[in-house]
Amino acid sequence: MPQSSTAPQRPALLTKSRFKRALECPAKLFYAEQSSYANQSLEDDFLAELAKGGHQVGALAKCYFPGGEDLAGISPDEALVRTQELLQRDQVTIFEAAIQHGHLLVRVDILVKDAGRYQLIEVKAKSCDPLDLHFMKKRGEGIVKDWEPYLCDVAFQKVVLEKALNTRNIDSYLMLANKRARAATDGLNSKFRVAGDHSVIVSPELSKEDLAVELLAKIDASEPLDYIRTKGEYHGHTFEGYIATAADALQRNECLRGCIGAHCKKCEFRCTLEDESNGLQSGFRECWKEAMGWQDQDFEDPLVLEIANFRKADKLLAQGKAKMIDLEETDISPAPGDKPGMSNSERQWLQVSKIQKGDATPEIDIDGLRAEMQGWTYPLHFIDFETITAALPFTSGRRPYEGVAFQFSHHVVHKDGSVVHAHQFLDTEPGHFPSFDFIRALKQALEGDSGTIFRYAAHENSFLNLIHSQLRDSDLPQEEVKELCAFIESISHSKDDSELTWCGPRDMVDLLELVKRYAYYPQTRGSNSIKHVLPAVLNHSAFLQEKYGQPNYGATGGIPSFNFQNWQWIQVEHGQVRDPYKLLPKMFEDVPENIDELLSEGDSLANGGAALTAYARIQFTEMSDYEREQLRSALLKYCELDTLAMVMIYESWVN
Prior knowledge:
It is built from 23 helices and 19 strands. By secondary structure, it is of the alpha+beta class. Strand 6 (192-194) and strand 7 form a beta hairpin.
């Protein structure tokens, strides 16, 4: 029987995605190539790009260059050969051109050759105002932080092209969504459907009118690229010096060590308990062991990185204080805030002191909460919105990444303590702009009384401000616009930068702010996200455990619900109440359970990761009616739990 043999593996080439990782942290370049290290990042870019519309933006950009040669569907080796053939022409446009120089390889989104001059165009799913866009800081003191990763991406490509093509005649651009542009036609985004392999199917019905207004702007990046290449410093190297260092380390399969610091908090190369049981290694621990001389047991003590909303971690690390047990009160300097309840720094010291004392009991300011409650009017209303900012507008007149509100849930608590899931709204019709139907339904749900309304975080207020602006800019009958705007003004407040100002008599109460000021649950480890607060509240409240520990939710004579029947929310496992969100059916098999954490922004979710992804799939991907209906059902359940979670937090405080 012949012995099997395998060809030797070629050393990895430094691509722009690998170089991006190396810019974030030198060690990440090594860990990402090793299957023995745990990796919590979302390697499949579907989520990030689908949610932002990146696939669609890329496909739209190609439509602005008719006659381009598309190499997206072929392998890098084939693309290298084909690119060289096409570049023999005097004039050519290539999509996903493959260019290699030594151990460096790039795939250029759009490469235009016109005689001896080239245009390198990098398409990004990011919006900008072309008339007010600044890549450089004032007085040329460096690159604006938010833009630097994108510009380094372009700079890397330009370096490779100059070396491979032996020319300096390369003009470099970022192509970005133009916030000032308005779609010329209805249904544009439905003409760019994302297939199962993440390719984009452009409808044959796409017309010249659809493309009459260019929604993407080509922005010259020459000034910031010059700064990056001549003055930029990257992990102790010049830009091109770091490219050479990273490429060499990749070839040698060696780990470049960066500096540990506050940035390590977001390191993806950590191990979960499941990862450890599977024998995977932690890159995070490896870096810290080497830098601090630690052993595994040192990681049993919570680090200063875990202090919530804390900006002094690097300062403490420089003083040799890496663990919370090492800290003194003066390291946090807790100071009272200008509002009742705990300030942020007081809350941080509470987190540290409870760790030091081994105290796992919640801290609830009952008097403070009682004072807040005295100003509330029954019945109480708890609302949650699900929204998305779509790259390609749904209807004419809309701008790229203009927000869309597609779902809400509404629970009511009456003075006698009875709870009801009172209303819900969900519009997932592909290509339809749902925000105006959304606000009509919300008005109908809330206008029946003058009860206090609750939200969790600023998201709902921000989106009501947006819809207010959309209404004023719409062609709806003016009488209805005034009516709907008046409703919005009655339950919200205007943002600081709004051209109009208001603060309604029923301005929503932010439950997140009440959590921050009056309640601390050590189980949350400092997080105030409702996804962390809810399990902590359930484990602390005997009242909730009794009330929801039987199958009475959605049961006859129990708590009315639109989406659940005879449901039991309290289920105990290993002495702890299970997270209610983990009791719901998974929306997707190919999306991580921690999607909400991956897409979160601080203490709250910008949109709700799972809901945003589900809506994006319904809108932009090819799927059957059955799959679409299953996702709709899951969306309704998740959103209902979001408002029930708010009710449960309220009930735990009252009881």
